[in-house]
Specification:
The protein folds into two domains: about 130 residues, no CATH class; about 220 residues, Rossmann fold, CATH 3.40.50. Helix 1 packs antiparallel against helix 2, helix 2 runs antiparallel to helix 3 and helix 7 crosses helix 9. It is rod-shaped and about 125 Å long. It has a seven-stranded mixed beta sheet with strand order 6-5-4-9-10-14-11, with helices on one face. The chain has a two-stranded antiparallel ribbon with strand order 1-15. The chain is of the alpha/beta class. The protein contains nine helices and 15 strands.
């Protein structure tokens, strides 16, 4: 009987065998889809919940397909040993395979939807991360501004207290004489045959320098914080800029000529701290007038310069410094330190520019108006000739540190 019907059923058997192979291939595709979804689910946490739900549905579908494949396999084996009812089973299998085909098509549609969702969520995640990074940067900048403003307000309070003490009987005349003596040590000069220029930002962080960098290949930047516009301008002129700041992890801007050091500048050298002399020695900088120094270390400059020797200072062609705390000149020890430092520098350098930093207040000290924070540019006396300065400060190339307030008028700054 089997031999009689065998030729009739062999095409159906082959067809079912082919369908079995196709189902196996489709099952393999489903496994790969499942693996890809798992990968995307791990990589995109924002879509984890939605993908987990879809993955569970696909896993259930995978189990269902596996069961269907087992059914088809058993049916094919039955066909090989049975002849009765083959036509009916063939129709049944065809219907089942048609159902599987629809399910696989539905799975493909779902996969396309999942892929689109993954890509969409990935784009959204990247956008949100970039936006979060930008907002974090803005918050960090705001915190820095608040800290600076808090220090300035504290200085304002201290200044008000000093003025009150003078009104209540402190020797205002002595304070006035002291601030005039300081002013004389900071008298501006004009460098013959040289021009001045502004390097750095238009507001805080930019400084006036002498356009005289011949033979100068190195700059030291003491105090970096979040503004390195001066450092960047100098680096673009070909100078190697050694940056020192113990309060930040690195320079906020990168440049091939930047060399950042997370080190505090102090009067003496010890672990984590360097002096002017030790920095010069460690970098092999000893040629006279061959290095530019920019220093803004929030009041520590007085002790640092006190400890520096004349030979160390003569290594610099220019010194651009922010001097803090002039409102405290009635303190004898502080006044003596200020006079010693300014006298030492004045014997080796001439002031070519002064500018009052308007982030801190202007004080009336013994009847003499004087900024509590003064930006001073010195030039080594060996670099050029100097004559009496006739400029009025601020000059056209100056700009207020705080753009929301007017710049301080210093006149000719002659005391």
């Amino acid at each position: 009987m089997w031999r009689l019907f065998k030729p009739l059923f062999e095409p159906a058997v082959r067809h079912l065998t082919q369908q079995k192979a196709r189902i196996a291939e489709l099952l393999d595709v489903v496994r790969r889809l499942e693996a890809q979804i798992n990968l995307h689910a791990r990589n995109n946490q924002a879509a984890n919940h939605d993908l987990a739900t879809r993955l569970e549905a696909l896993t259930n579908l995978h189990g269902h397909l596996a069961k269907e494949l087992d059914v088809v396999t058993r049916q094919i084996n039955d066909v090989a040993v049975r002849s009765n009812g083959l036509a009916e089973r063939n129709d049944n299998l065809a219907a089942q395979l048609n159902g599987v085909s629809h399910q696989i098509h539905d799975l493909a549609v779902r996969w396309d939807a999942v892929t689109h969702r993954i890509n969409h969520e990935s784009d959204k995640s990247e956008t949100k991360w970039a936006d979060a990074s930008t907002r974090l940067g803005s918050i960090e900048h705001l915190i820095k501004h608040i800290e600076a403003t808090s220090v300035s307000r504290f200085d304002n309070l201290e200044a008000d207290r000093n003025i009150v003490r003078q009104i209540n009987g402190a020797d205002a005349g002595q304070v006035g004489r002291r601030i005039r003596t300081i002013g004389k040590l900071l008298r501006p000069h004009t460098a013959v045959g040289r021009l001045k220029l502004r390097l750095g930002g238009r507001a805080d962080g930019g400084y006036i320098c002498l356009d005289d960098f011949g033979g100068v290949k190195t700059a030291l930047s003491f105090g970096v914080d979040q503004d390195v516009s001066w450092d960047l301008a100098v680096a673009k002129r070909g100078l190697v800029v050694h940056q020192f700041d113990h309060t930040v992890e690195g320079s906020p801007t990168e440049h091939p000529n930047f060399r950042f050091n997370k080190i505090k500048i102090c009067p003496v050298t010890q672990p984590g701290e360097e002096s002017i002399g030790s920095v010069l020695a460690s970098q092999g900088l000893n040629d006279p007038a061959s290095v530019v120094l920019k220093i803004d270390i929030e009041g520590s400059e007085w002790d640092v310069f006190s400890a520096a020797t004349a030979s160390e200072l003569l290594t610099f062609s220019q010194i651009i410094c922010e001097f803090h705390g002039f409102q405290f000149v009635e303190d004898d020890q502080f006044y003596e330190k200020v006079i010693n430092v300014l006298s030492k520098i004045a014997s080796l350098f001439h002031v070519i520019h002064v500018h009052g930093n308007n982030y801190c207040p202007m004080f009336l000290l013994g009847g003499v108006a004087f900024p509590s924070l003064l930006e001073v540019t010195y030039v080594n006396v060996r670099r050029c000739e100097f004559v009496e300065c006739k400029e009025i400060f601020p000059t056209p190339i100056d700009a207020p540190n705080n753009s929301t307030r007017p710049d301080f008028f210093l006149g000719n700054f002659i005391f």
